[in-house]
Structure formats: structure tokens, C-alpha cells
Input
Amino acid sequence: MKAIAVTDGDTRPQIIEKPAPEPDEGEALVRTLRVGIDGTDFEVIEGNHGGFPDGDDHQVLGHETVGVVEDANGTELEDGQLVVPTIRRPVGESNAFFDRDEPDMAPSGTYVERGIDGAHGFMAEYFTSPPRYLVPIQAEFADVGVLVEPMSNTAKALDHAFASRSAFEWEPETALVLGNGPLGLLTLAMLDSTVDRTYCLGRRDRPDPTIDIIEKLDATYVDSRTTPVAEIQEQYEPVDLAYEATGYAKHAYETVDVLAPNGVGVLLGIPGDWSFEIDGGRLHREIVLSNKALLGSVNSHVTHFEMAKESLAKLPEWFLEDVITDVFTPEEVDDAFERGDDRIKTVIEFDTL
Amino acid sequence: MKAIAVTDGDTRPQIIEKPAPEPDEGEALVRTLRVGIDGTDFEVIEGNHGGFPDGDDHQVLGHETVGVVEDANGTELEDGQLVVPTIRRPVGESNAFFDRDEPDMAPSGTYVERGIDGAHGFMAEYFTSPPRYLVPIQAEFADVGVLVEPMSNTAKALDHAFASRSAFEWEPETALVLGNGPLGLLTLAMLDSTVDRTYCLGRRDRPDPTIDIIEKLDATYVDSRTTPVAEIQEQYEPVDLAYEATGYAKHAYETVDVLAPNGVGVLLGIPGDWSFEIDGGRLHREIVLSNKALLGSVNSHVTHFEMAKESLAKLPEWFLEDVITDVFTPEEVDDAFERGDDRIKTVIEFDTL
Output
């Protein structure tokens, strides 16, 4: 079968031939329809994220996937059922985090991540998986189901953010999304029904398709080159919820200043090492005196995929069409991994329903 | 009546004479028994915290108080009932935060704080208050009821910390308290029944009464001069919960490193401005990849006082005796506001039951 993989020393992913996988007992065989590309894929390609599967000289990419059950193989799934796979798998048989369906909370070393770290991904014509890692989705999501995985990361992050404010009455009215990449835009759309006013930070000139989407969502585009994060509070308003999806480390700390009292900032970016000066005393004091919270959130699991499915069903048609800007065949791999400001979510289509 | 107040320009609190307050309709008159002294009092004295009540040239100190209802004055309280007052009062009639009994979450400008900022405290023979700000406590707490207010701050902080981890299964086994002042020691004792192993950070040489208490609680004393916070994880173990009560700004950031995956650091200190360099990229990444949380917590209200009452009832007798090291009469005000390593909690006793 065809697969898209990065090989040791490669700087670009390539299409390769691999034997189609045979499902073990208790595993279903899934035929891949679409796989999305995101920033993590580029980190894997650049070798900055995770490692190859044990004993292999290549890593099949892909972690944002929708597929169809080709052979339920005696599992509780049904042939023809549309599914989205989760990413983490246990090292060894299982562990407490997997046993209680919370592998997203598992510490490093207890899991591998399909398509990212230590396990092959889903960017191939077929893959196998135990059904507990396959989330059934509606048949009408064949084209947009690749958005369930990224949206599930936001579902988890928001779930944790709301939990962190659950010891008191908290009704957020305003939210700021830092980052206008696909995850930022999806989050902005998800927040549309949660808060009254939304802002989205980017660093792009008009005309730009992400700014168009931001404004079609009735959100306010904030250009970080003219309005630094720390000034958003004054220039617009403080926000109850901030969602960082830039990976720009200073944003983690600047978030404190943009939050309204009792606000929460949830961090999802994964920056590299970077030392800089902060007004650490003032920020510490501000966190305390205004009951603020900063949370990190990584990965997601079945409950969050279920939340994401519900959110996806509520997103407007035009938004889904505008966000998935590019669809390529596996053979167009070179094109697919190009980047550009005109692209938002690129997907590779292996097959259709 | 006698009161202990700080006057404009004074560098030390003094005993003054004031007319005893007359309760308004809907207010009870309370006879003060004991008032504790804490770091906030010294900040008020040094003029670093809040301002005097409108139109007054002095501020009566005191916010850790136990008293007895002298005249219920038609309220639902009973004469002779032991009570502990809460601290925040609304600016103006009321506001949404007070209406829902969450003034601890009210933003700056919407409240004054008795004994701290803009309102007279309880360090006087009598005070008046609406009953909604008076928490009834057991008669046997006449001597130790001054601990309810500081413990209520911890009750709130822990309530928020646990809430922040409530979106997944979290059973903390280890906790670190940063700071061996009275609040740190009270928190350490409160955590004794919550986690398996506790650590307490200080910078004192033995013999020292706080180290004695730490070790009598079966906690581990960590000397920050030989074991910096960032090294606690390696030298001892990572902790699920960190509680910062030092006001030392770097601890807010170092806390991230001492936390186990999925851990939470709750900050209560109120540092001044201080700029310094941090490894902001690494810390941001660590917060995200390990699902960590940092929360600020300030003040507390009736529900937290109720929690504190329950915790107080569970503390061992020896601990309470060891923590309240000094009891002074109002006339001994000069002595009472001396500081020393042999003192833990100092209280001023206006009367006995």
C-alpha cells in the first residue's frame, strides 16, 4: 500500500510502498480516507519531535485522520463505519492512564504517539487499531472528520480551563485566541457559541484568508505587530479566557496581563528553549491578587473526541469549506507539504467513502 | 475602647482610644477575644498595602479574629455566640460578587478589606458587622479561632487547586509547601490528611521551632539555601501539589519544575515588582507537555471559613499549642509587633470568654 513517511536523514516526506497491515485479534482494519497535515508533522519531519518506531528507519506520518472500517474483524465495530483514531498507545500492554481512558494525562515514557513519536501514523491506505482507540463518527463527516482530532485538543483544553474555574461562578464573556493557524481558527469557531466576544491574534497583512474567516466569525483580528499581547487589555478589553496556540514562549507570560480578574489562560504551544527577562514579581502578584490561572494542555482522548464531534456538527458549512483549503492525492506529497499564507488546512485524500 | 492602629506617618502600631462602635440596624456588636498578627499587618504598617479608611488618619489593624457576640441586636445571631469575621466588605451597598457570597473573587475597586485596605480592622475591644460576615464557630475554639481566617485562605486555595484538576482522575500523593511561616505550617498540617508525603521549604538553621513542627508533622524540611526549589524534584521527588506562601517571585516559576506531571502550583504570596530572566521557553513547554497548572488565590469567604473550621477541628492539640507561640495584652503592643525566629503566630488578647 501507499504510505507517506519520513526516512532517517530525509528533509521531506516521501511516498513509499509498505505491506498493508493485517489486523491482530481484537483489532479492526481501517481504510484511510483523509489525513490532515499540521505543525506537528513539520516538527516530526525536522526531527524535533519524538523518534522513529523501534527498529524502523522511517516513520509514517499522520495523526489527523478519518477512515472507514474495512474489516471489523470480530470487534464491536461495523464494516463501513466511519471512525477517527486517537493518537496515544501504551508502551507495553497498558498502564493506569490507558486503563482509565486518560492517556492524554499519561507521563512521558508511558506512551507512544502514532504519527508523531515512536509509532507509525495514519498517512497510509490502511491502518489497524483496537476499537477502543477508534471513535465512530457520522457518515456525513467523511470530508471534515480530519478536524475532529485537532478540535479534540481544544475540547480538552477548554474542559480543563472550565474545570479550573468551577470552584466559583464563572461565566466567560470574552475570549482571545493567540494564533490564527488552523487550530486557532477552529478554536475561535468553537468559542463562538461559548462567549459573547472573541479576538484572534495573528501577524498577517490583509488580504488574508485567515483574517477573512476571523471576521466572518464576527471576531476581532488583532495584529500582534501593532498591538502587542500586553496591550490588548487596554486597546480592546481584558478577556476571561485566553487560548495560546502560537508556541511563542513569551505569549505564555503575556497572557497573564490580558486576562480579566478570575480569568484563565490555557497553553497548547510547544516552544523550544528560550531565556528572556520577565517582570516576574508583578506577574506573580497579578496572578494572585486577581485569582488568575494558567494551564497547560496536551493531547486528548475519546471523551474529547466525542466533545469535538458535537462541536463539529455545530460549525457553519462555510467555515468548514473555508478552513480546508487544499486536498491532495498521496502522489502530490511534495505539493501537500508546501506551506503558504493561502493555505489553512491541507489534507491528503487516500480514498473516498 | 482600646484599639491598635497605625497612624499616618507612623512606623509602629500604637494603642489608641476610640469610641466603642454602635451597631446599626442589621448589625451585631462583637466583643473581641483574640486577634492574630501576620505578614499582611506588617505590610499595612509599612504602607505597602491598601490605604486608610476614607476620611480617617489611622487604620485599626487586625483581620485574624475571634470574638463573642455581645449584642445580637435583633439579627439571627445569639448573644454569647463565638464568631470569626470575614474581611471584605463592598464599596457601596453591594455588588454581584457579594450577592453570591464570593467577594474573594471580586475585582479590585469593588471592595475594602477590614484591617488591610480602606476599612478598620478588628484589633479593638469591640467591632460591629452584619451577621453575613460573621462565621459562628464552636465555643472550644476561643483560643485558636484566630487560625480560622488564615486557614480559610488555604481552604480556598486548595479548593481551587483541586477544581483545576477535576477534569481527570487526580489523587495527589505528595505536596510541597514553600514557606515555613504560620500560613505555611498551617497548610502543611492541613495537607497531612490529604497526601501521603509532605515537604516544607524554609531557610532556617536548626534548632528552630518551625523545623521542629515540620518534623513532628512527619514532613520533610527542605533548606532552600542548600536545596534550591528547582532541585527538589531530583533530590527528593516531584510533587503533585505545590503551595507558595513565600512571596518570593522566583518561586512562582520554579514551582513548575518541582511539579510532577498533571500537578498544580497554587500561589498566595504577593511580591513587589522584580524583573529577572527565566527559561521561559522550557517552562512553557513543560507546562504544556505535562498538563501542569499554576493558580493564584487571594482572600476567602464564608464557605472557606466553614472548611477551615472543619480542618481546625482535626489538627492535633500539640500543633495548635506549638503554633500560637505568643499571647500579648493590647498594652504590650510594642512587644507584640516584634519579630523573631522563635515566634510563629503572635496574638493579641483583648478578652477571654
About this structure: The first strand of chain A starts at residue 2 and ends at 7.
